[in-house]
């Protein structure tokens, strides 16, 4: 049997489940099966960047942060692990480990909720209209 490469099946119906069972029966011993919740959608991601850009422009609490920095702050507020590494030039620290692309749909919904809650608490009006550019 030829080597099976990177098969992904989204379990949306009984047919798709049967397809997954069929593939499992054909894989060789030692193959790895990874079942995980669905990751965030492109629409969720676009909404997040639209909201972060609006907050960045509003400068709540006098904070002048880029949308990327706001994202790191909100990810930290949800207890997503981040660590810091020294910059290559030795001048300062760089945050690493806050990739929102790894969040599940539910986790991403929580992130959007935290953004809305923060904006409401600080009087930042938000629109859920998604704009193609994410620049602040």
What is the β-strand count?
A: 2
State the secondary-structure class: mainly alpha
First CA to last CA: what distance? 52 Å
Largest sheet: 2 strands, antiparallel
Provide the β-strand percentage band. Answer: 5-15%
Fraction of residues in helices?
Answer: 40-55%
| Nearest-integer average pLDDT | 85
Which regions have little confidence, pLDDT < 50, spanning 5+ residues? 132-136
Radius of gyration: 20 Å
Question: What can you tell me about this protein's structure?
Answer:
By secondary structure, this protein is mostly helical. 43% of the residues lie in helices and 6% in strands. It is built from four helices and two strands. The chain has helices spanning 14-26, 42-58, 67-77, 105-121, and strands spanning 83-86, 93-96. It has a two-stranded antiparallel ribbon. It is flat. Mean pLDDT is 85; it is low at 132-136.
Briefly, what is this?
The chain has 136 residues and is mostly helical.
